[in-house]
Batch of 2 targets.
Target 1
Amino acid sequence: GNSVTQMEGPVTLSEEAFLTINCTYTATGYPSLFWYVQYPGEGLQLLLKATKADDKGSNKGFEATYRKETTSFHLEKGSVQVSDSAVYFCALGTGGFKTIFGAGTRLFVKA
Amino acid sequence: NAGVTQTPKFRVLKTGQSMTLLCAQDMNHEYMYWYRQDPGMGLRLIHYSVGEGTTAKGEVPDGYNVSRLKKQNFLLGLESAAPSQTSVYFCASSYDGVDTQYFGPGTRLTVL
């Protein structure tokens, strides 16, 4: 079946450090891939997405590349800020009626 | 353009009481979803709808009912609340099943 696996948190980094949050997926067909972010006390919001292999999604300095050969969609940012502290969810849209969400990775950024 | 709104934001119930959570979206989306979010459990899908007048069960539907009488509204009902239903509830909508989901701000429900 379809599934998403992302690295467990929490991830704790100092400001200006490099961030990677790993995400791998299992899916039939050609899914769309998403990263959502949830700030404290809020709902999830789309951070970036990619709809086909080799596409790169980017937003607010975050990037992720859709790698079909490794079934991965890792989230990266070159220099994190305190304001990036949040929970990040990798997600998979397969053409069915639902999106499959990963368990979420909490990021803490220290000043 | 309000996006997705949820009412109420907070609620405390006693065991056995009933309540209805309201979700409204102004984006003319066909698909709407109800999730619950618990510590360490990520998001779990309760029920969803693929259009006005339709509903379907998600992963954890027991103890909940839903209705989609109007395209813009999706109601989640708890007929007899239990402490296990203490959670944060999120509503979301999307244009189709593979597109971006737009989430509401959540309802924090405590059942005593």
Note: The mean pLDDT of chain A is 94.
Target 2
Amino acid sequence: KAGVTQTPRYLIKTRGQQVTLSCSPISGHRSVSWYQQTPGQGLQFLFEYFSETQRNKGNFPGRFSGRQFSNSRSEMNVSTLELGDSALYLCASSLIETGETQYFGPGTRLLVL
Amino acid sequence: DAKTTQPTSMDCAEGRAANLPCNHSTISGNEYVYWYRQIHSQGPQYIIHGLKNNETNEMASLIITEDRKSSTLILPHATLRDTAVYYCIVRGNTDKLIFGTGTRLQVFP
């Protein structure tokens, strides 16, 4: 069974731009969570989607948003990029129920110049 | 979710067992202990999890103390490819994983 896939793997943007990252969960998984990893803050939870609904949200500004499609694929969007948004963005998927084991994708490395 | 405490770094000789401790003294009765590892900025890799009993899979063993206030992840025969940051996470009925700073395990030849 294929793992979680994320596209693109690497991305360079400039301040003020916006970016959309994509995540395809493991087949059969319906929950998708997003995390941001920076050297200073470590791994931090962004939000989680299940059945196209945001079920949980971390402490990030409204510039960070996401959505989930009927096929469970998810996207996250960051608007008005700031230098501090440079990070590794990780997506994780799990089966239906809350509390199931999460499996992570390889991440998208975003560099904001 | 309960907070965990792990040593910042550990060394282990290749072929020897690596024992990674984790303290979670405020864990609640329905919270699981999860272990993930992250190799050089790749996505975290799930290793193992448990509630009360010791667990073993093809990657590792998890030993949880009877009072559940601490646990140990055991890699029975460490290889160079096991060099990574290991995260111990206490998780309740939520999909929000709270990562600490983890233990940087260095396996040397």
Note: The mean pLDDT of chain B is 94.
